[in-house]
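Exam revision sheet. Question 4 asks you to relate a sequence to its structure. Input first:
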Amino acid sequence: MRNLVRTFATGSAAVALALAVTGCGGDTAGEAGGGGDKGGDKGAKGGAITVETAQGKINLKKPATKVVALEWTYTEELVALGVTPAGNADNKGYGTWITAEGAALPQGVTDVGSRNEPSLEKIRALQPDLIVIDNERSKSNLKQLQDIAPVLSFTYTTQPQLGTMKKNFTELAKAVGKTNEATAVNQRIDTAAADLKGRLEKAGKGGLTYAVGQGFTANGTASVRMLTDDAIAPQVLNLAGLKNGWTGKGDVWGMTTVGVEGLTATAKNAEFLYVAAAEDNPFTGAFAKNPVWKNLDFVKGQRVRPLDPGTWLFGGPLSALHLLDETGKALKV
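Answer key, structure tokens:
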């Protein structure tokens, strides 16, 4: 699946989605990090910092101030910390797929090319003091990047993905002297989930069964990436007491890619939450007149709930907050 997604050519919403889905980040750790450790405190005061990464411990003499991020998750995290990246891979794609409140890319961020093939020349010209990458995507040019600046490398898919995201967000925050800010943002996720849970229970909707998927068209075929409990988005929704009604076998990302027939495996009582680009929406397009789609329980029961197309299901803390907010709106609580 990962290789398939990465090989689509650019030029359409489906292609953008196929490439976008790999815009995830992470680390080697599975537990959520709260920050406030000695390394983070020293960094906040301008002292030496040690950061845990997928490539081992990275030592920095002082907090980084000019950072290039080659994965959207880490760009989102930097913005959440109040840090404007010096460079980002694919500014247009970031702006299309990540629309969470507070996540907008600030003015003046240099576009350094695609995430799969960033421009080393543009990165070098920025003279960064830190580069943040996805461990798998950037393996081929890791040494060249390390020749430019210290590199923080993370792996998004380590389980549990939500804990991994929080941990890596805290590690990145150490590197830029923003540990306290990371702690506050991480806590917002738990607070927002508890708030949604309370509103659902008050409305008599506590513990609802849901399924969440991302629709797209590739090579003329309408498909859906259904998310298992191994994916970060269900892990966020489950904090609110919701129950995932999709139990298909997932890939390393926690995704099961199916056609319309595959959707028949969705729990019969599920609320169907989905994300799809306005110009490439199988649920209102290719599937709409399909008899299999029409006979799905959640379709007949009018429980199809579109989310904001910019709800990034593979992102950082601001995307997690956006998912909770959009789900609350979709479920009318």
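Marking note for examiners. Confidence is low (pLDDT under 50) at residues 1-16, 22-42.
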